[in-house]
Amino acid sequence: MAVDMVDEGLIDEKTAILRVAPAQLDEVLHPILDPASEKKAEVLAQGLPASPGGAVGQIVFTSEDAIKYSNAGKKCILVREETSPEDIDGMHASVGILTERGGMTSHAALVARGWGKCCIVGCDALKINFKDRTVSFEGIKKTFKEGDFLSLNGAKGLVYGSAIDTMDASENPLFARFMSMCDKYRKLGVRTNADTPEDAARALKFGAQGIGLFRIEHMFYGRNSETPLSKLRKMILCDTDEERKAALAELEPFMKAAVKETLRVMDGKPVVFRLLDPPLHEFVPKGEDKKKELAKELGVSVKEIEKRGESLHEVNPMMGHRGVRLHVSFPLIAETQYRAIFTATAELQKEGMHPHPEIMIPVTISARELSFQRAICDKIKAEVEAATQQFLEYQFGTMIEIPRAALTADRMARAAEFFSFGTNDLTQMTFGFSRDDIGTFMGDYLGNKILDADPFQTIDTKAVGQLVKIGVDKGRSRRENLMCGICGEHGGDPKSIEFFNTIGIDYVSCSPFRVPIARLAAAQAEIKQNA
Ligand code: PEP
Ligand code: MG
User: Which of 34, 256, 293, 310 is the least buried, fewest Cβ under 10 Å from its Cβ?
Assistant: First the structure.
């Protein structure tokens, strides 16, 4: 309608852009529950709207069952307390995901949003009985069992106890025209958070100008049998440097292949590879059969595997041995990632392609951490250059996701050629709210109007936003043309984008399905700013 009205001369382009709410684009991109049928259905519970769209499927409680249902051609909804990397295959096989715990940046929320899959998290009213394979909802008499139907409205966080009709959002032929209209008016760049060639290709179709965050750990989250999760586990649970070296050598080809194929899809466009971030214990196997499998591979007992896994346990893993800290303790792990990236780059150059890798260090707090890593990175680059006879170029940068890094950004900019603000962690660290447990009390804060919005969804301009602005200004006081991006979930949130547009951010990066929303929001922000 917006494009029609422009064509008919009723409104100008700017007015058309301002009249389309970004949330309306979301509806165009995802299948939704049929509003007429939804109105008639009974709401069982409401959780956090982690990823939009509608999903209708049968309840399953494990990843294995989700895969079985999917293989049998049945649509299922994975119901979990929360999800972890071990659930990835099941999440992929499900049409929707519903979790009892977790906030807007929990594992389930991030992964589902990345895939454009309907997801509701932090659904407090949900009580799962794994033993009986049933689920109940506070205040609802009926108990649901495996195989019963649920419907999810991911845009509103609503759960229904019946199969509601869905509507396929039809391809709007005017969509592309509307989006290019937006591109004419925006200044803010829009990249995507993507970790597979498929996601990268999807994001390109949606207009992404590069990848702002390729989380290396996501290649271990196993969407198919080729994934090297078992090899990563082996590397984590081995005992000596020698064993670790051997395990890393097994991992490297997988890393290189994932990096190379993504760079190939993004030919000519920048791709930010972010070093392995989560605490290692996240990858320690939990299931008995996985433990047995690994024990066999490493030639040790299951007890020994458990002992090694326990030694990685941390009371507060989000503030623990993760990100750059991991790579300070184990430079070999960093070396492998650098080598995979540079070798992939060199091979593509030999094929005549134009890869643009950017390497980003997570969870940093000091310029010295960066210099320490840069030395390793440049050493590996020189080795790969010598071996491949290719001259390699790259950008070396850092995430700014801890208040200390933002407040000392002038020093960080000495060692970093670009910044990307990890506003998920920056919010977590500034508020002291755990991003994984926030679901239990965020509702009380919003209900009592202590907070106007979930700060993990919409940037808190008063404190977190101020830290971003300080980071940008201080960073540029040291390095005038410092490229500054946003790669936290706020990068796809229209209100946050409006704020970022005012403080000199160069680009936002968000999941592929949010790219058009970000393009529209960036155009609206620029038009409003100049009105
Ligand atoms: C962030 O913290 O904002 C970020 C993008 O990194 P991750 O979500 O992987 O911690
Ligand atoms: Mg982070």
Answer: 310
Ligand 1 neighbourhood includes 405 CB (under 6 angstroms): no
Q: Do residue 488 and residue 401 come from a single domain? A: yes
The predicted model scores a pTM of: 0.82
Is residue 216 domain-shared with residue 96, that is, in the same domain?
no
Query: Would you say residue 195 lies in a domain?
Result: yes
Given the CA of residue 215, which atom of ligand 1 is nearest to it?
9
- CA-wise closest residue to 26 among 486, 498, 514: 514
Q: 197 CA distance to ligand 2 centroid (A)?
A: 22
Q: How confident is the model at residue 26 (pLDDT cuts 50, 70, 90)?
A: confident
Going from the Cα of 41 to the center of ligand 1, the distance in angstroms, rounded, reads: 37
Residue 499's pLDDT is 98
Q: Is residue 228 part of a domain?
A: yes
Ligand 1: which residue has its CA nearest to atom 4?
422
> Are residues 211 and 148 part of one domain?
no
For residue 307, tell me if it sits in a domain. no
Q: Confidence band (pLDDT; 50, 70, 90) for 172?
A: low
How many domains, the chain?
2
Nearest CA residue ID for atom 6, ligand 1: 422
Task: Evaluate: CB of 425 within 6 angstroms of ligand 1.
Answer: yes
- 371 within some domain: yes
Full residue range of the structural domain in which residue 387 is found: 186-278+322-529
Residues 146 and 204 in one domain: no
Sorted by sequence, the CB contacts under 8 Å of residue 300 that are 6+ apart come out as none
| Cα-to-centroid distance, 331 and ligand 2 (Å) | 20
CB atoms near residue 469 (< 10 Å)? 18
Closest CA to 268 of 394, 349, 355: 355
- Mean pLDDT, rounded, for 231-245: 86
In tens, the pLDDT along 366-399 reads 999 999 999 999 999 999 999 999 999 999 999 9
Task: Specify whether 226 is located in the same domain as 352.
Answer: yes
Q: DSSP label at 461?
A: I
Question: 207 and 67, same structural domain?
Answer: no
Which residue numbers are catalytic? Answer: 107, 487
Is the model more confident about 29 or about 434?
A: 434
Question: What letters, b where the CB count within 10 A reaches 16 and e where it falls short, cover 107-139?
Answer: bbbbbbbbbbbbbbbbbbebebeeeebbbbbee
Is any atom of ligand 1 closer than 6 Å to the C-beta of 487?
yes
